[in-house]
Amino acid sequence: xxxxxxxxxxxxxxxxxxxxxxxxxxxxxxxxxxxxxxxxxxxxxxxxxxxxxxxxxxxxxxxxxxxxxxxxxxxxxxxxxxxxxxxxxxxxxxxxxxxxxxxxxxxxxxxxxxxxxxxxxxxxxxxxxxxxxxxxxxxxxxxxxxxxxxxxxxxxxxxxxxxxxxxxxxxxxxxxxxxxxxxxxxxxxxxxxxxxxxxxxxxxxxxxxxxxxxxxxxxxxxxxxxxxxxxxxxxxxxxxxxxxxxxxxxxxxxxxxxxxxxxxxxxxxxxxxxxxxxxxxxxxxxxxxxxxxxxxxxxxxxxxxxxxxxxxxxxxxxxxxxxxxxxxxxxxxxxxxxxxxxxxxxxxxxxxxxxxxxxxxxxxxxx
Length: 367
Fold this sequence. Notes:
By secondary structure, the protein is an alpha+beta fold. Helix content is 63%, strand content 12%.
């Protein structure tokens, strides 16, 4: 059952103003017009405007929200309104008859009327004003239905935002331990090989953990900090890299403070290259290129592969990293990114492009 729709003070004032403009304003113009109708005709119009407004307000504030949306009792809604219209269309002519008859235009006031003309006048009243009452009810329903749709849409958007936030937190929770375990394994291996490099690696890791603790927990970080993190990570991983692997790293210096990105997003592609690089005939390579132009942030990572590694992505053996980055891109950047992942017998290629405008838009929304 949908909860009854509540009206705010501002919304109530807006509804009442709209009712005045729709129902009273024409009568007020006639009241102050130089070529005005007789006073009893103007009084009649104002009285009927009050009737329409009353029907509209009763439906808008009580009947529609409680019966049509609150308790979902549509039959009772129609029954009450039908009875209301029939009673008003029956009693109002009798009330006017008891107080001098139905008002007539100026040019017909001194013209005698037959019984049939009187009857036609009442019939016109019932048809004309009955239709206006029905239209008042329909307007109240239409406005309430529109308000209900807006509130439902707002609730859906809030739930979707909460769902996205929960999913992103889950993705980050998976990614951070994944990175930490790999880094600790690297340092552990270096202790036995080169203690000085192990100390250097530990220092690099402490800086990176500081980034992850204080910056990566935010929704976005500046692209400058993210690039520095990637640079430190690459330096850390290169300390343990097999000498037969040729590492090429081209990272553009980015000094635009308005560009922000989701933390650790690019890291996944870079880390994947170090993890899955293959050495064939005593040769291997990792190429990392990150740059920004006026339109796109481009991250292109390529590493040597081998026949044994073909199909790992399709078989689901690429780990949580690549799956996480695809999910995060879909949630955060929608149509503003391009991710291409390709693999053949000699190399594994990943290319990520994100629109610069999306990075700036994300920054503004995060603020």
